[in-house]
Description:
Structural class: alpha+beta
Strand content: 5-15%
Order of helices and strands: HEEEEEHHHEEH
Number of helices: 5
Distance between the termini: 23 Å
Number of strands: 7
Strand order of the largest sheet: 5-6-7
Number of domains: 1
Helix content: 40-55%
Low-confidence stretches: none
Amino acid sequence: MRLLAVGDQYGxxxxxxxxxxxxxxxxxxxxxRFWPQxxxxxxxxxxxxxxGEPRYWSMAHSAAASFFPYLKTSVPGLWxxxxxxxxxxxxxxxxxxxxxHLVGAIVAxxxxxxxxx
Length: 117
């Protein structure tokens, strides 16, 4: 849980998980690809279901909310891949590999919510 807390404290900026931190918490890449948002959600959901602690459910909620800007594209069903530190997106092709991460996050969310009901 410590790693999750450190990541949330130092690796989340403006509501999104940034791409890269060093072990001394120095930011080396402040951009935010979409797939780390899915991994952040899965980690928070796992912590929430294992511990039952409300702070992890809150973290999961924040992680899930971070998906929405990535999905606001002119083509329904696609996504932006890369968000700059200022919150703008780079208009580039949506990598198909992100779909794998997105589906995994949706499955994790469904599983966690069914288990908490």
